[in-house]
Amino acid sequence: MATILKEKRMPEEPGVYLMKDSDAKIIYIGKAKNLRKRVTSYFTRHDPEIGWKTGRLVSKIADIEFVVTDNEIEAFLLESNLIKRYRPVFNIELKDQQRYTYLKITDEPFPRLLVARRNRNGEFLGPKGRVYGPFVRGSSKFLTVGLLRKLFKIRICDRLPKVPCLQYFIKNCEAPCIANVTRGHYIMNVTALQDILGGRSSIEKFANEMQAEMKRASDLGDYERAKEIRDTLYRLNNLRVKQKMEKAVNKNPDEEYVGIMKDGKKGVAHVMALRRTRGVISDRKKFEFDLVADNSLSSFLVQYYSSVPVIPRFVYVNEDPDDREVLEMSLEKIAGHRVSILNVGRVLANEKRQLMDLISRNLSMYIERGYDPAVAELKNAAKLPSMPEVIDCFDVSNLGTSIAVGSCVRFANNKPAKSAYRKFRIKTVAGQNDFAMMGELVRRRYS
């Protein structure tokens, strides 16, 4: 690797560096004020507390590429975007991935709308098509796939059948399977959806066009078509009202508390975030990431706040992040308003320090004992003598009075133990008696 570094011209400007392995796959992306100094430090400096993980990264590096930026803020933002795109294995990847949603419109004569799934390498799975996103919950662009399909009459069948399905009869699809709609008309709807997902159009513009189309259909005496458009507008109006309410709730997000605690032995950082809205704790999230290379509170905050719909005006932390001023300006670019990052150790308000102490106690419990605080709450509520390591969940289901079945799922050490899942056919209980059926399930499961 030293030979490669000598052969490369390493810039001394701010920018982003991309480390690759022998297969030319990107394994780490970092930013730097001075690219030459930062990259060279990987091969000359050793941190005994967390160096073994960074050493593992360095041992896999076969090549390094550089992207120079005009300033550190651009480097912050470019790093965040590239990490989302390539998802390198050594970078911070938030476990809260359900907050990201990618949508795909397939390359088919009558395209479908799907949720786009990705593997660990960042490659999209499933049929070919154009991907849109990422969208996040609360975003004005985030719409459920089901509602989008209904609004734009997009088919859901994997293959076009020879007979219409239920979606046609409940007016959610125009049945291209039986040539009930021309391909040109179907593609018009798909194009309108693409314009909205791609940001070239808006929901309001689409609603206005639908309103004009409804009037034309009514004037021509095509009342059935006018009624279908009216129903679509009704659904659309409900969506717009819902989004308006969400924006009203998120208009004043107030403040968020982000505490970090490092487990040096394992080389892992644990982070907990508490969102407080109008004085009330409204959300709580926990993350963890490997202490590799430049992974730190600062890089976590950029990744975290580029994935949430609303960034608070004030962020309180328990340690000073690297390049705090540059970080604040980077978050301001993302949020569209000023963002202040404050260390609670320098804040006079006692209640703010108490909230951070609460976060620290929770993180300490997790690191020392290896379980989530919610498990401790369950132990206390159920008056258990020790922490529950295995949890079984039962359910029963009836079809009339003749067929009754039950199931059990198991979680062991916070993970699904699928080999211990069980299904039961109720044998000893007649009629609909959930309590007696539950008793049979529990008895048979543990006997």
Q: What can you see in these coordinates?
A:
With 447 residues, this protein is of the alpha+beta class. It folds into 4 domains: 2-86, GIY-YIG endonuclease, CATH 3.40.1440.10; 97-249, no CATH class; 255-380, Nucleotidyltransferase, domain 5, CATH 3.30.420; 390-446, no CATH class. It is built from 14 helices and 15 strands. It has helices at 2-7, 35-41, 51-60, 72-86, 145-152, 166-169, 183-197, 203-219, 223-250, 297-305, 324-335, 350-369, 373-381, 434-446, and strands at residues 15-20, 26-32, 63-68, 100-106, 113-115, 129-136, 255-263, 268-277, 280-290, 314-317, 340-343, 390-399, 403-412, 415-416, 422-425. The strands form 4 sheets. It has a 5-stranded mixed beta sheet with strand order 9-8-7-10-11, covered by helices on one side. Strands 12, 13, 14 and 15 form a 4-stranded antiparallel beta sheet that branches. The longest helix is centred in the middle third of the chain and has 28 residues, at 223-250. The radius of gyration is 27 Å and the shape is globular.
Give a short summary of the structure:
By secondary structure, the protein is an alpha+beta fold.
Could you list some keywords that capture this structure?
15 strands, 447 residues, 14 helices, GIY-YIG endonuclease, 4 domains, four-stranded antiparallel beta sheet, five-stranded mixed beta sheet, alpha+beta, globular, 39% helix, Nucleotidyltransferase, domain 5
